[in-house]
TrEMBL record:
This is Exportin-4. It comes from the Eukaryota.
Length: 155
C-alpha cells in the first residue's frame, strides 16, 4: 500500500487535491509517461496515498456531520484526477493504475461498511436525530414559519 509521509490537514487537503487535478488536467498521462519511470511510479503512489487519506477523512466528516466537508471536496477532486488517468490508461503502467484503482475502491467500501468487513463506526442516536432534524424536519418547519409570516403580512 502506498504511504504518504507528509501530514496534510483538512484545510490543506482541498488545495493539494486541486494541485493534482490541475496537474493531470494540463499534463495528461500521455505527456507524463515521458517522465522517468521511477518518478511516474512515485507520482501514482502519492496520488493513491492522498486519495486514500482523503477518502477516509471524507467518511469521518460524514459520520460527524461536519458542515464544511473539506475532505469530501478534496476526495472528489482526487477522483477527477483519477478519471484523467483512467481515460488514458493505455498510456500508463496499467498494472500499477489497476492496483491503485482497486485499492481506492476497496478503501471507499471499507469506509462505508460496518465491521467486520468495514471500518464505519456506528452512529449514535444523537447524530441520527441531528441528521434527520436538519435534513427533513427543519426545512418543513421553516416553510411553515415562512407561510405564517406571509399570511400575517397579507392580513
Amino acid at each position: 500500500m502506498p504511504s504518504c509521509s507528509i501530514e496534510i490537514t483538512e484545510v490543506e487537503a482541498l488545495g493539494v487535491s486541486n494541485i493534482f487535478r490541475k496537474l493531470l488536467l494540463f499534463f495528461p498521462p500521455s505527456v507524463l509517461v515521458a517522465l522517468p519511470e521511477e518518478m511516474l511510479r512515485q507520482l501514482v503512489d502519492n496520488l493513491t496515498a492522498l486519495t486514500l487519506k482523503f477518502a477516509q477523512g471524507a467518511a469521518h466528516e460524514e459520520m460527524l456531520d461536519h458542515e464544511d466537508q473539506l475532505y469530501m471536496e478534496a476526495f472528489e477532486q482526487m477522483l477527477q484526477s483519477w478519471v484523467c488517468i483512467l481515460q488514458e490508461s493505455s498510456s500508463c503502467n496499467s498494472s500499477q493504475v489497476k492496483q491503485s484503482a482497486t485499492l481506492i475502491f476497496d478503501t471507499y467500501l471499507k469506509c462505508h461498511l460496518a465491521p467486520p468487513d468495514g471500518s464505519r463506526v456506528a452512529v449514535s442516536v444523537w447524530h441520527t436525530f441531528v441528521y434527520v432534524f436538519r435534513t427533513y424536519l427543519l426545512p418543513e418547519s421553516l416553510k411553515k414559519f415562512q407561510h405564517r409570516i406571509i399570511d400575517k403580512k397579507k392580513a
